[in-house]
Amino acid sequence: MSLSIGLSKKVTVWSLVVCIILAMFSTVTSAAPSQSNSLTVSGYVEYLTEKQKTDPGATEVLEKFKALSSYDQEKFLKVLQSSEIGKALELKNQTVMIEGVPVETKATFVSDLPNTLNAQWESTVLGVSITTFYLTLTYRFDLANGGRVTKVVDANGAHRNYNPGVIISESGSASKETSGSEAYARQNWTAKMVPAGGFVEYALIGYLKGDGNAGYAKFEGNTPALNNINKGIWQQIWYNDSTHTLK
To answer: How far from the centroid of its chain's Cα atoms is residue 82's Cα?
Structure first.
């Protein structure tokens, strides 16, 4: 799944997608299952069926889940309820093993020059999406002044979550600012879960920055209960080859 969002007066399809996501997924009210109330196949189907009413993306997840074999469905649910599910929240290109099942996370970065930078971090289990985080930054720059940013237009962050045992929410709106010659966007998320070892909360932070010369994305995570900090690394989204022009 890939997003590219332009939030200038000339609104692109990407901006509409993000607006829909922000409206639908800023608050997640699903309760975490307790140890005495394990998630079942029928229970998960019911959860996704209900979620479809406000989240069109749940339809695809439901179809893919139903397409799994009974054996794989059980493995999928074991991963969702595992005490190690937090590994999937270290959002970078990686594959981690949880309950003997590979959980893949893919970072996708797209630029819609000269307007917007976009980042998406998605985790999947057996090809079925469980969480996706989105961040977009729109700004203007002056090539005649070394690519210096002249205006930060907008910044938006959102998420999708299909694990009823994890509660994810945006911690306020995405912030935007100009620092030096660059534009910055930052979105904080909070993820809460109840693994076997007790309640755990994750603080997640996505970043975008750019000017007229290059654009970058970074994601960081912090697990206070485990005293674990995942420091992200800036990854380049685009580099100015002097072929694009401002509109």
So the answer is: 20
d(CA 142, CA 24): 35
Contacts of 207 (CB under 8 A, 6+ apart): 135, 184, 185, 186, 216, 217, 218, 219, 220, 232, 234
List per-residue pLDDT tens for the chain, 247 residues long: 433 333 333 333 334 333 333 333 333 333 334 433 588 999 999 999 999 999 999 999 999 999 999 999 999 999 998 888 888 887 778 898 999 999 998 988 877 766 789 999 899 999 999 999 999 999 999 888 888 899 999 999 999 999 998 899 998 899 999 988 899 999 999 998 865 455 678 889 999 999 988 899 988 877 655 455 567 778 888 777 654 443 3
Assess contact for 109 and 121: CB atoms under 8 A: no
Provide the residue count of the chain: 247
Helix (H) or strand (E) holding 96: strand 94-98
User: Which of 178, 205, 202, 155 lies closest to 22, judged by CA?
Assistant: 155
Position 226, amino acid: L
What is the C-alpha to C-alpha distance for residues 24 and 238, in angstroms, rounded to an integer?
30
The helix, strand and coil proportions of the chain, stated in percent and rounded to the nearest 5, come to 25, 45, 35
pTM (predicted TM-score): 0.77
- Spatial CA neighbour of 74 closest among 42, 34, 32, 36: 42
Which residues does 69 contact at the CB level (< 8 Å), separation at least 6?
none
Nearest alpha carbon to residue 208 among 112, 143, 89, 131: 112
The DSSP secondary structure of 14-66, one letter per residue, reads HHHHHHHHHHHHS---PPPPPTTS---HHHHHHHHHHHTTT-THHHHHHHHHH
